[in-house]
Each structure stands twice: as C-alpha cells, then as structure tokens.
Amino acid sequence: MRGVWAVERVRDAERRVFERTPEAALMRRAAFAVAVRSAELLAEQTGGTSGRRVALLVGAGNNGGDALWAGAFLRRRGVAVTAVLLAPDRVHAEGLAALLRAGGRRVVASGDSEAARDAVADADLVIDGIVGLSGRGPLRPDAEALVDAVTGLLVAVDLPSGVDPDTGAVAGPAVGADVTVTFGGRKPGHVLAEGAVLSGAVTVADIGLGEALGEPDIVLLDPADIGALWPVPGPEDDKYTQGVAGVAAGSATYPGAAVLAAGAAVLATSGMVRYAGPAADAVRTRWPEIVATGSIADAGRVQAWVVGPGLGTGAAGRDVLAHVLDQGVPVCADADAINLLASTPELWDVRDPETPLVLTPHDREFARLAGEVGTDRVAAARRAAERYNAVVLLKGHTTVVAAPDGRVLVNQARGAWPATAGSGDVLSGLIGALLAAGMDPWLAAGCAAGVHELAGDLAADGAPIGASALLRAVPDAVRRVRAAAAASA
Ligand SMILES: NC(=O)C1=CN([C@@H]2O[C@H](COP(=O)(O)OP(=O)(O)OC[C@H]3O[C@@H](n4cnc5c(N)ncnc54)[C@H](O)[C@@H]3O)[C@@H](O)[C@H]2O)[C@@H](O)CC1
Ligand SMILES: [K+]
Question: Which processes are annotated in GO (biological process) (predicted)?
C-alpha cells in the first residue's frame, strides 16, 4: 500500500524536521532529486544530457527555489539551463545565485517575453517550479502562455502548477506533466480528480521527512495488495464455507443489470451465488451455476447481499431493499437502492447499524443521498461514510472509498474505458462476493474497484468495450493481481 498525506500533515512534518535539519539542506535534497529524474528523462528521450537545453519556470516561492537549485545541479552535467523568472521580485535568492554561479542564464518573463518564450519553446525539458504546495487557483495568464509554448518534456516540481494540492481539482489552466517529482510522500493532488492525470508518472523522493510524516491520510491499493487480499479457497473449503452471495437486482424489463451483477459475483470468488428477482430466467440461462428464484422471500441463506442495480424505485423495489436490509448480513447497495435510501429515509430504520453496508454512488446518486460532492471528493465521501455508518465508494476516474472510521483509499484508473453502461452492475457484484467471503467491507470495496478497473483496461486494450466484455476479463484481472502478489511476496 502506498500512502498519501494531506498538505497540512506534510507541512507539520517539515516543521519538525527543520528543528534538526536546515531548510536549505532539505531544499537541496529535493532539488537534487528533481535534477536526477530530469537527467534520466533527458538521457532516455534524447540520448544524453550534455548540451541539452532545460528551461526552468520559476515562481515566487520555494517551489521556484527547488527548480533553480535543480538547474544548478543540471549545469554540472553539461546541460544548458535558462531560468524564466515569473516573479523576479520574490524569486528564491540563494537558488538563483546558485544557478548563476553554475553558469545558468536568466530571463525575466515580463521583461523580455520573446526571449522567455523562445527559451521554453526550444527546451528539451521544462521544469515547472511555478507553484507547489502553496499554489492556489489556476495558472496566471503569463504562466499559461509559457506553459502553452512547451514542446519538450515537462517535469513538475512537487505538483503540477494549477492543480489544487489538497483536492487535485483544477479551476482553469494547469500544467500537464510527464513526470512529477514530489518529496516525502504523495499528496492528494497527485491521486485525485484532474491532478491524478496531470501529474503524469509520480516519483517520490526521500528528503528525510520519513517518520515525521506518520500514518497516511489516504492509501492506494497496489495490484499486489489486492492480490494478497483476494479470497482463495483452501483444501478444507466447500461452496458454502467460501460465502454465498445473494443478488437482488434487475427487473423483467431490464434483466441485464441482474445478469451482469450476478455474473460478477460468480467470477469474483468460487463460492456460490443466489439470485432473487424478476430476471430469474435470464440469470439462469446465462449463468446455470446460479440458484435463481423469482421471489426474495424464497432466496435462502446468504452471507451478503447485492441490492439495487436495475431494481426500480417503486414499491416492489422498496420491499426488496427493506427485506435485504433486515437480514443482518453485509449489504452492497447500488443504483436504485441508493435512490430509494435517499427518497425513503425510513428504510434506514430497518437496518441494523452494526451490519456492514457498502454504498456505491456515482456523483448524481451521491448528491441525492448526501448533497453535492463538490471539489473535495475525499472529504465528501468521508462525511457520507460517517453520517451513514457505511463504507462509501464514490465512483469516478479516481474512485474514492471511505470507511466510517475515517480510513480512505483511492483507486486510480489507467484509462476511462470502464465508464460504460452496466459497468457499475459488475462492480457491485464483485463487492457482494467479497463481502460474502468475509472481507473487511472497506477493503472489499477497494479490491473490487481495483480488479474492476483492471478488467476494464484489459478488455478494452485500446478500443471501446461494453460491460459484458469487462465482466469476461474479471478472471484475467484476478490472475494478474494474484501474480503481482506472488511476485512481491
Ligand atoms: N518547506 C519545505 O521544507 C520544503 C519545501 N519545498 C518546496 O517548497 C514548495 C512550497 O513552497 P512555498 O510555500 O514557498 O510556496 P510555493 O512555491 O508553492 O508558492 C509560492 C507563492 O506563489 C503564490 N501563488 C499561489 N498560487 C499561485 C498561482 N496560481 N499562480 C501564481 N502564484 C501563485 C503565493 O504567493 C505563494 O506563496 C513545495 O511545493 C516544495 O516544492 C522543498 O524545497 C522541500 C522542502
Ligand atoms: K510545480
């Protein structure tokens, strides 16, 4: 698991480290890491470093200071370095002096805009030191014009400028980096919203913040983590001991949601799946291994329920949801189950609040249930998780999973192919199967999100797919995460 630390936590850690390490030493470590990564990229992409051109976009603070020191280090490798100063009055003086001592050049963006533009446009690699952790709002117009002129590689210092450090949101022009070199640990801006894409490949440099950082605020589940957690039957297991998942979804008119959710439960684990609802014939035809019945009352015993996809929001759907919530087993409530919980608050009274519940809203469902998501998706999910004493999986390019005790994990998407009709039905089926296997509901939601996203990516392989193709790729995705776990064991 990789950690992500809120900006304020990083600042606290820095303050503690400053008590024994001078700020300038920390900055040089940070800048050295930027220089090393930039030199690597230059060597990879242009075949060397000597004689290559690097431009530094230098803002008003320490982020610009990092860029200037990185430029000074790159000079030692024979790189021609030009600093473009966006705020010459507030430039980091020691950093600039170091660069000039090392033989770097400087231009003032507002003073000689043509030379500034040329330096950026001609550079093999541009280092973005416009703003870092103190950045607020989008790029200013002068910075935007220079960023637009970049033709070479772009390395962001700490965070792409224009990305909100705490939420990853952008409110206008922002840097899109090939690589971001950050310090101590990832920040939310690297993994959330647009920031996850604009950061490019993130390198975390150790500058000695180490233990001062403490426990992360957010974790990222890697394929190896998911593979290690995925339920695997042992020699003593039979179909019941691995957990029976129940699926209450679909309707006679819309059987597809039921077929997809129930199919995902079949492929996720090797236990047993029961289905109850009006799509029993369609489910049985597609998945003969499922024990399907028309009525929820006849469903039989299960260890977890998936309820909601294609359920409808009428009286019949409400009765099914009430029945499921009353069973005292973990529930994954998706789609219409969420809409029903939003429109009929009495349904909450049926639920034993100690029984695990996973809610899987997209933004519109979330808004119905708990108000607008807003720009801080982690805060929104955390709030809803606490309010409903439920795990809340907020869907998006980056999926956020919050537990009622405040734990948050995010799953980063490789691409957007899984955003297709029926995809959510598959996700809820995966979660239900993992809940039935007895997994911690927060991890169940996170692992399911990871495998779901990987299955979408594998199935798509560069072309659009439907949810059925995503579903068919689930076994391959499970194989891959298990192989990753075996490789890292
Ligand atoms: N404090 C530390 O210990 C270390 C800090 N480091 C660097 O220092 C950075 C933080 O530096 P600072 O706190 O000085 O601040 P920044 O360099 O992030 O920002 C500087 C100033 O830019 C202005 N600004 C804010 N938003 C802007 C926008 N959209 N466009 C233009 N200007 C804007 C603000 O006046 C802000 O104070 C980190 O991101 C990291 O790069 C590293 O050197 C490692 C050590
Ligand atoms: K930056």
Answer: metabolite repair; nicotinamide nucleotide metabolic process
